[in-house]
Amino acid sequence: MSEPRRKGNQAHTQEVRISILKAAFSVFSHGGFNGSSLKQVAAKVGISEAGLLHHFNSKVALLNAVLEYRDSVSAEVAETAIKKGLAFPLDWYQVIANTAKNPDVIMFFAVMSAEATNPDHPAHSYFKDRYLRVTNVLAEGFAGMREAGQIAPEIDPEQAAKTLIAISDGLQVQWLLNKNVDLLQGQKDYISLLSAG
Amino acid sequence: MSEPRRKGNQAHTQEVRISILKAAFSVFSHGGFNGSSLKQVAAKVGISEAGLLHHFNSKVALLNAVLEYRDSVSAEVAETAIKKGLAFPLDWYQVIANTAKNPDVIMFFAVMSAEATNPDHPAHSYFKDRYLRVTNVLAEGFAGMREAGQIAPEIDPEQAAKTLIAISDGLQVQWLLNKNVDLLQGQKDYISLLSAG
DNA sequence: GTCTATAAACCGATAGAC
DNA sequence: GTCTATCGGTTTATAGAC
């Protein structure tokens, strides 16, 4: 976007940026935003704090970049589900199963979304919007199932969406504390119940 | 426990201790453990940091005392539900409804349980145990309903317990971010579904 | 029991050399 | 682009006067 440079430098800068984002994601996963320091992130990348701050002006800027980076990854996952021709709720299971492959992803969103309930948290509005967005997507999914006669007509799609998200989030916290939980089963059971009702 | 003192001093000390615990609970509710400082707690009580540390030797000791204090409050709530002769799931609804009266309580457990998924967190084992304990209580409740023919025989009480806790926890996070969620309805709907299935 | 003062470490961020 | 050095602020915790 700024002055043009040698392609070699641009490529290298981009590589470092991404390695910082990955390291920050991992560090934030364990300690949240408040419980993590730039020193930890820098150490994980193998550079100095000042070196890190050359790529991201502040800790908050780094967090925002991490959130943006994760969104692009999520979009990719969603796209492949669409390409496979999966319809709700199968595409949703696909997303969860994909998430479960990387515990850091589960930790990040569990810890960060709870931390971000504080209105002063830098990611507050991000998670606020995120929940509304995901709720709408799932509510549309349930509405489609209702039209297709796959779930009872008296089910409120929006309420079902919020509940499914709650089950997903809640089981993830339990899973992080005690690994005696199946992340998918509870959600499948719930949708089965909706179908049987 | 140590040397005996004047009753007047003891009473005053106890009062200050409890006011510190209440202040700490409120501060931790908003920022979690990592995002809160002793300065904030001390300011809320109206004493100095050193004054606070006279009553609790360290920040971790304060957190442990807060958790212990909350357990005693919870036990009190559970007892009154028992005295009212409420059986599962009505007693559980009672606990949730009571919790919902104080948003700080919801914030505290939502933020702290997520933060405590980190094995290095001082409250890690507390929340680990807490989930196992609550899961057992609710699983017994569902087992009782199954024996009484109130839910289908093929329902797994433990899985249902974990799911109900997940719904409760998950909806609380959503409620903290966007107040467009009913904390009780999702849980009542779920148990209704189990009964109908 | 509460205070002031302070230690010692860590934090995010900046300045400037290379 | 990365580094060392450093500033200014905050953190938990201690020492010691009252």
Question: Topology of this structure?
Answer:
Two copies of one chain form a homodimer.
Chain A: H1 7-31, H2 38-45, H3 49-55, H4 59-83, H5 90-100, H6 103-115, H7 124-147, H8 157-177, H9 185-196
Chain A binds a DNA duplex (18 and 18 nucleotides) through residues 9, 12-13, 16, 37-39, 47-51, 53-55, 57-59.
Model description:
Two copies of one chain form a homodimer. Chain A is mainly α. The mean pLDDT of chain A is 94. The interface between A and B is large, with 44 and 44 residues. The first copy, chain A, binds a DNA duplex (18 and 18 nucleotides) through helix 1 and helix 3.
Structural category of chain A is mainly alpha
Global mean pLDDT of chain A: 94
Q: Report the C-alpha radius of gyration of chain A, rounded.
A: 19 Å
Major beta-sheet overview of chain A: none
- Largest contact between chains: A-B, 44 and 44 residues
Percent helix of chain A:
over 70%
The N- and C-terminal alpha carbons of chain A lie at a distance of: 56 Å
How many runs of DSSP E, i.e. beta strands of chain A? 0
What does the oligomeric state look like here? Answer: homodimer
Strand content of chain A: under 5%
Shape type of chain A: elongated
Count of runs of 4 or more consecutive helical residues of chain A: 9
| Parts with pLDDT < 50 across at least 5 consecutive residues of chain A | none
Order of helices and strands of chain A: HHHHHHHHH
